[in-house]
Amino acid sequence: MKKVIIIGATSGIGKELALRYLKAGHTVGITGRRKELLQELQQQYPQQVFIECFDVTGTNNTTHLNALIQQMGGMDVFVYNSGMGDISKELNAGLEISTTQTNVNGFVELTVHAFNYFVTQGHGHIAATSSVASTRGNSWAPSYSASKAYMSTYMEGLAMKAERMKLTIAVTDIQPGFVKTKMAKGEGLFWVAELDKAVDQIFHALEKRKRKVYVTKRWALVAWMMKQMPYTFYKKMG
Q1: d(Cα 172, Cα 156) in Å, to the nearest integer?
Q2: If residue 181 lies in a helix (H) or strand (E), which one and from where to where?
Q3: What are the backbone angles phi and psi of residue 127, rounded to the nearest 5°?
Q4: What is the pTM of this model?
Q5: Per DSSP, what are the bridge partners of residue 4?
Q6: Domain 3-234 has what CATH class?
């Protein structure tokens, strides 16, 4: 059975993904800011769930991750699912900075630590929830799309690094479109996936150790179209 750590698992995709692994019999370490929600899941699966409560924008991220690894007796899969993003219509500085701290700074610190842990161990699997929004900029949420682009590009670099170093470390970039969670904000949303369907696709992609997965699969077409669209036309949408 695998030892899986999910950063950001108190709700939404993170929580449902944790449940998928638990139902499959794996040991799961979960983190988040709301301890009562972590404990709630631990009470349901007392023999399989280990918790560590912290905010990824804090200063002791790697200490918390090490504590969780020690509790579990190791780590085979690391998933960075913590994310922040909201509409910043007037370019709110506080929101832009907080989003970047969560989606970039916290992500890099913990993912680098996990990668180096797997280097020492000789094998492992790193995954991160970026977004189809990483494909292009967005005037309504500049820091969100930019930070998700950072995550996606960084994950590609890690995959290349693992191959160059001839390491058995899989790297998966999870790119959801709209999923029915609290992160799905704004008007005119389309192709909004039910949470269980989205997480089913994520779980199966991780089991296959895929390099990249669009959730749901149809969003691969949207991502391709966004990449091809000239700025002259795209700016009217974003």
Answers
A1: 9
A2: none
A3: -135, 155
A4: 0.91
A5: 28, 77
A6: alpha beta
